[in-house]
Design a protein that fits this description.
The complex is a heterodimer of chains A (464) and B (240).
Chain A lengths: L9 H7 L5 H5 L7 H12 L3 H6 L9 H8 L3 H4 L7 H9 L5 H6 L6 H9 L3 H8 L6 E2 L3 E2 L6 E4 L8 H13 L6 E4 L6 H18 L5 E3 L3 H9 L7 E4 L4 H6 L4 H17 L11 E5 L3 H4 L8 H13 L5 E5 L11 H17 L4 E4 L10 H14 L3 E4 L4 E2 L4 E2 L3 H10 L6 H9 L3 E2 L2 E2 L4 H16 L3
Parallel strand pairs in A: 3-4, 3-10, 4-5, 6-7, 7-8, 8-9
Antiparallel strand pairs in A: 1-2, 11-12, 13-14
Chain B lengths: L17 H19 L4 H4 L2 H7 L2 E4 L5 H6 L9 H10 L6 E6 L4 H22 L7 E4 L5 H9 L3 E7 L10 E7 L10 E7 L6 H18 L15 H4 L1
Parallel strand pairs in B: 1-3, 2-3, 2-4
Antiparallel strand pairs in B: 4-5, 5-6
The chains are: A alpha/beta (464), B alpha/beta (240).
Chain lengths: 464, 240
């Protein structure tokens, strides 16, 4: 007789069907053996999508994320796939006959728990193959996410928010063709003054060079909005989000704050008539597996499912950029390279399936069992999967957050390997500025270099 | 240069030049070794320093570095033997209890503690506060402060602990402080002074800020996010 395993509810089944993660183990909800793990996967594969919709893992009556997910659920387009099992759904996603149009049609019928369920029975290569089919295009000051485009966020962080230091790092990134996704600074201090100073400085850089790109200071949403009230220009409004109400509370945010913030920024963009806006995607969200457990607000749900629910939050606000910061949280949640790679592929796939412009901060901390080769590996896998954007950090070494990510050099490497270009408006600018020639970084001649440095001097002068 | 960021390094096609590549690996190697290094009191500090301050070593329930990294809860409780030893050697109800923890970098406490501790203890003496015997905790997490509160009931516990190493430096230490620490405390009940290293906050400034915070905590009878750190005294004030 085959071995029997008993799963008391969907929460337990979902958790035990996960690939191994130290965070699920830490939460005490992981499968106890490999045999139990596969038994859970098999049982999950036989569930119908309707059964998942009908049994919320977290009660919508006392969690506003669950409530939001059900409210935005498109029941009509769900009808045709209602009785499909999770196992059949996996095959549908991978089928020769399934194209982007078919997947887009059901995007709003897929709730985060469905995306998480199918992820649990997909291999790493499945996650790459299925994600590569879906392009989610967004617009702010340029257009991100089209097929053939790979964006890069310049992340010119500085340990003391020194404006000249930030601008120097940013300038070098531009010379590598980076910065089309956003030029976005994590501030060392969450004060309104330094957030405002950073926003003004980045805006000066972009205005001086007439760069068709977005800037952002990744302070707390309330700090950014206070800076806005004091006259700072905001292209993208940033916030970290998570998959339970209590975790969002621990971040000091509510869904109402996100909604009100977004409306203020859309209005602010309408008033800035000197900018030629391409669209109204104005939000930038970051997420990461393990954040709910770390805030002691996971409610017995596994970290893959909670991550999918964070995307459920994100997609309600039509963001321009969303990325998981996959290796940042540390080995308690993602122990080593293997778990970080798995999580990165899961996050990217789930986000794409749910309709988000997914990028990824491919990274690790120095106490995780990973190194720069791990970053190379996940970077290339996500390049193949059609990830919307990566980070560009000078030599991958973030001197403020003390972790390692991907670099300006990596940007050139991935674009070259997969034949990808920067965002169309940005590429045109790079070629006009003489930084790119024939869609590749050009060797800068002396007049071009002098011209570019002059612009940097102008941007820096404003800091005094 | 306005930034420690690694700029103007050139490139070899779509990759780093060899020197950049090797430098990055070398810096990561230092960070990794610092994380993995096991604390041993006798090699971490010289004999005279240990003797002067009568330091002794205890351990949490995490028995290896690996276990420490994977299971945070083990690093927040003492092993049974260590608990017994602390109760045997320490005095309860002191004004100040200083504890040294390896955290994520033995190198950090090895470098910073010999500079900071004498300044700190001089200030404690000047203020007339009572202080308990100082001990060093292997496989230590910040949450150990709660058990120290339970065992020794100090008015203020100060934990000097090694920070997660960055690529540029593995020598950075933090001081976590709690007023009457107890079981229910979380980070919200603690105050933190971070970035204590030669290119960050100097030992003198750190000692001044810690002592200043101690006095402030005693005055108000609280610690944590509701206690805003007062303007630090000039470092000279504690050297005088």
């Amino acid at each position: 007789m085959p071995e029997q395993f008993f799963f008391s509810d969907l929460r337990e089944l979902f958790a035990k069907a996960n690939e191994e993660k130290s965070g699920d183990r830490l939460a005490g909800i992981a499968a106890g053996s490999e045999r139990e793990r596969i038994a859970a996967k098999r049982k999950l594969a036989d569930l119908s999508l309707d059964e998942i919709v009908r049994q919320p893992l977290i009660d919508p009556d006392n969690d506003d994320v669950s409530e939001l997910i059900l409210k935005s659920f498109d029941r009509e387009s769900f009808m045709p796939i209602k009785s499909t099992t999770v196992g059949e759904f996996r095959e549908l996603l991978l089928d020769d006959a399934t194209g982007e149009a078919e997947l887009k049609k059901i995007q709003r019928a897929i709730i985060p728990e469905i995306a998480a369920a199918v992820t649990k029975i997909m291999s790493n290569k499945d996650l790459v193959l299925a994600a590569a089919r879906i392009r989610n295009v967004t617009r702010c000051r340029n257009t991100m996410g089209e097929r053939g485009v790979l964006g890069i966020r310049i992340q010119p962080n500085h340990p003391t928010d020194d404006i000249a230091g930030i601008l120097l790092s940013g300038f070098e990134g531009l010379l590598y063709g980076c910065g089309d996704a956003v030029i976005g600074v994590n501030p060392a201090s969450d004060s309104v003054e330094s957030t405002g100073a950073i926003l003004h400085a980045l805006n000066r850089l972009v205005t001086t060079y007439k760069i068709p790109t977005q800037t952002c200071c990744l302070a707390h949403i309330s700090t950014q909005l206070a800076a806005l009230s004091h006259g700072a220009p905001i292209d993208l409004l940033f916030q970290s989000v998570a998959g339970t109400e209590a975790t969002n509370q621990s971040f000091g945010i509510t869904l109402e704050m996100l909604s009100e913030g977004r409306e203020r920024i859309i209005e602010h963009h309408r008033q800035r008539q000197d900018v030629s806006w391409k669209g109204e995607n104005v939000m930038y969200f970051e997420t990461g597996q393990g954040s709910a457990l770390s805030a002691d607000a996971h409610r017995g749900v596994d970290q893959v499912t909670l991550e999918a629910r964070a995307y459920g939050v994100a997609r309600a606000f039509d963001p321009f950029l969303v990325n998981s910061v996959v290796g940042f949280i540390g080995p308690e949640y993602l122990f080593d390279e293997r778990q970080i790679i798995r999580a990165g592929l899961e996050d990217h796939f789930m986000g794409k399936l749910l309709g988000l412009p997914m990028g990824c901060d491919v990274c690790y901390t120095n106490h995780a069992e990973a190194d720069q080769n791990s970053v190379d590996n996940l970077l290339l896998l996500l390049g193949a999967a059609g990830c919307n954007y990566f980070m560009g950090v000078p030599c991958g070494d973030d001197v403020m957050l003390n972790y390692q990510s991907t670099s300006y050099h990596d940007a050139i490497g991935v674009r070259r390997l997969f034949n990808l270009r920067p965002a169309p408006e940005f590429l045109m600018w790079l070629e006009e500025a003489g930084i790119y020639r024939d869609s590749e970084p050009a060797k800068l001649d002396e007049p071009v270099r002098r011209q570019l440095l002059k612009g940097l001097e102008w941007s820096l002068e404003g800091t005094h | 240069m306005h930034t420690p960021a690694r700029l103007l390094v050139g490139r070899a096609g779509a990759a780093y030049r060899t020197e950049t590549q090797l430098q990055l690996r070398e810096d990561h190697a230092k960070a990794r070794d610092a994380v993995r290094a096991e604390l041993d009191l006798k090699t971490a500090f010289n004999a005279e320093f240990i003797e002067t301050w009568k330091l002794f070593e205890v351990s949490t329930r995490a028995s290896t570095k690996l276990e420490y990294l994977a299971r945070p809860v083990l690093g927040r409780e003492f092993s049974d033997e260590s608990r017994a030893e602390i109760l045997r050697r320490c005095l309860p109800d002191r004004n100040i209890q200083v504890v040294i923890g390896d955290g994520l970098s033995v190198l950090a406490i090895q470098t910073q503690v010999p500079q900071l501790l004498p300044l700190l203890l001089k200030g404690v003496k000047t203020s007339g506060w009572s202080i308990g015997p100082i001990f060093v905790v292997r496989h230590c997490r910040v949450g150990i402060l709660n058990e120290i509160g339970d065992l020794l009931k100090p008015q203020i516990a100060i934990l000097l602990i090694g920070e997660r190493p960055g690529l540029a430096s593995a020598e950075s230490m933090s001081a976590y402080m709690a007023y009457q620490p107890c079981r229910s405390h979380s980070d919200a009940n603690r105050n933190l002074i971070s970035n204590i290293h030669d290119h960050g906050l100097s030992a003198r400034s750190a000692a001044a800020r810690i002592l200043n915070l101690c006095a402030h905590m005693m005055r108000l009878g609280i610690s944590g996010s509701t206690l805003k750190e007062p303007q630090a005294m000039l470092p000279n004030d504690i050297d005088g």
